[in-house]
Amino acid sequence: MNGMTAEIVTIGTEIIIGDIVNTHAQYLSQKLASIGISVLYHSSVGDNPARMQEVLRHALTRCDLVIVTGGLGPTTDDLTKETICEMLEIPLVEDPRAKTEILEFFRRRGISCTENNMKQAMVPENGVIFYNKYGTAPGMAVQKGTSCVIMLPGPPKELRPMFDEQAFPYLKQFSDREIVSHHIRFFGLGESTIADRLGSLTDSSDPTLALYAKEGEVSARITACRPTREEAEAAMLPMMDTIRSMFGNDIYGIDAESLEQVVVRELLSRKCQIATAESCTGGLLAQKITSVPGASDCFQYGLVSYSNTVKYAQLGVPEWVLRKYTAVSRQTAFYMAKGALKNSGADIALAVTGLAGPGGGTPEQPVGTVYLAAATRQYTWVRHLTLGHGKGNERDMIRNVAAKNALDMARRILKNNSSL
Predict the structure, then answer these.
(1) At 103, phi and psi to the nearest 5?
(2) pLDDT in tens, 257-298
(3) Which of 129, 253, 327, 348 is deepest in the core (most CB within 10 A)?
(4) Cβ-based neighbour number of residue 255 at 10 Å
(5) What's the pLDDT tens digit per position in 319-357?
(6) Are 72 and 130 spatial neighbours (Cβ–Cβ below 8 Å)?
(7) Are strands 369-375 and 380-386 parallel, antiparallel or unpaired?
(8) What is the 3-state secondary structure (H, E, C) of the chain?
(9) Would the pTM of this model clear 0.70, i.e. be above it?
C-alpha cells in the first residue's frame, strides 16, 4: 500500500454542535504524515447510524485508510463499532482480555461494573485489538479487501497513548517512507517580507517550503520525503542552512514551541534573572514567562501597574512624565523598565504600556499604540508599536502581540549581549 491515503472521521454530536473542539484531526494528521500516509480529508458526523454509514462509505471509496475516533463508549448512542462492522459485514465477538480489563478497571476504583460496559468487550472478529490502559474502550483495526479502518476512543487521554503505542506501529507496515518536517520560527518580520527574501526557495518541490503566519510571528515548514529519516534530514539541511544565513537573529528557533520557552531557556543557561512591569498587558507577559517549567529560577519580579499612582509610587515614573507625556508614551515605558530593574535586582527588565482598546484611542494615539522597554544595567531600549487595524475588538490580539514583542526584545538582548 505504498502512497497510502487516509481520511479522519470524528464521531460525536458534541463536535457537530460545537460543544467541544476537534483536536484529534490535527494530532492524527501530523502523526500519519510522519510515515508518509497522506491525509486527504477530515470529516465529522453526529451519533446517527445512517449518517455515520453514509460518511464512512464515502470515505472508503476515496481513501485506503479511514481512522474513526469516538463512539466506542458503553451508552446507546456509542455506535461506531457496530455501524462499521455491520457495513463491512464483520461479526462482533467477545474478547476475553478486554472483558477482564474492563472488570479490573472498575474493581480498582471500587465501582460496580454495569452490564452496558460489557458491550465494550465486543470486538470485530479477526480484528487487531488495541487495549486501553487509561479507560475501558479498546481500539481496533479491521481490514476488508484493500481498505483498512481503525477505530479509536474519543477522550484524548485515551486516544493519544493508544495511537502512539499501538496503532502507530501497526500502521508503519503500510508505509515504506518517512516524511520529516522542521519549523523555522521567525519574529519581527512579516510573511510577505520573508516570502520576498526567500524568493525561488518557496517554489522547491523536494524539499518543500511553506510559510504560515500566526499572531505576530511566522513559521516556515520545510518537509522532505525519503525512505529513511536520516535521508530526509540530509535532504533538508542545505535549505535550512541557507535560510539561517539569510535571516540570522530574526529566527528565534528551530522547532521551538514558543518565544517564552526560548527566552526562559536562554535565561537559565546564562544564569540571568528577568523582571516585568506591565500596564495594558495586565500580567500576560509574566504569565507567559512563568508558564514555562523552570521559570522560577529566572523570573524575579512582576508588577501590574495599571494606574498612574502605581507607576509613580512603585516604579518611580516621575509625575512630570505622566503629566507631560501620559502613561502611554516612550518616556513612561523607559521609567517603568528602569524601575522594575532597580526594584528587582534582575539582569533584564521588560515594560509594556499601551492602548489595548476597544476604547480610549485618539487620532494622534489610536487603539493599538504600544510602547515597550527593555532595561539592563548598561542601557535601556524602547520601541513603539502600532498594532491591529483599528477595527472591532482586537484587545486580546494587541495584548498578546505586545507581550510577544517584549519577549523578543529580551531574546535579542540575550543573544547579543555577552556581558549580562
Answers:
(1) -60, -40
(2) 899 999 999 999 999 999 999 999 999 999 999 999 999 999
(3) 348
(4) 10
(5) 999 999 999 999 999 999 999 999 999 999 999 999 999
(6) no
(7) antiparallel
(8) CCCCEEEEEEECHHHHCCCCCCCHHHHHHHHHHCCCCEEEEEEEECCCHHHHHHHHHHHHHHCCEEEEECCCCCCCCCCHHHHHHHHHCCCEEECHHHHHHHHHHHHHHCCCCCHHHHHHHEEECCCEEECCCCCCCCEEEEEECCEEEEEECCCHHHHHHHHHHHHHHHHHHHCCCEEEEEEEEEECCCHHHHHHHHHHHHHCECCEEEEEEECCEEEEEEEEEECCHHHHHHHHHHHHHHHHHHHHHHEEEECCCCHHHHHHHHHHHHCCCEEEEECCCCCHHHHHHHCCCCHHHCEEEEEECCCHHHHHHHHCCCHHHHHHHCCCCHHHHHHHHHHHHHHHCCCEEEEEEECCCCCCCCCCCCCCEEEEEEECCCCEEEEEEECCCCCCCCHHHHHHHHHHHHHHHHHHHHHHCCCC
(9) yes
Give whole-number Cα distances, 311 to 10, 283, 320, 415, in Å.
51, 14, 12, 29
For the chain, the first-to-last Cα distance in angstroms comes to: 57
Nearest-angstrom CA–CA distance, 54 and 83: 10
Average pLDDT over residues 402-415: 97
Q: Looking at this protein, which amino acid is placed at residue 369?
A: T
C-alpha cell at 13: 454530536
- C-beta of residue 227 within 8 angstroms of C-beta of residue 244: no
Q: How many residues are there in the chain?
A: 420
**Tens of pLDDT along 97-153?**
999 999 999 999 899 888 889 999 999 999 999 999 999 999 999 998 889 999 999
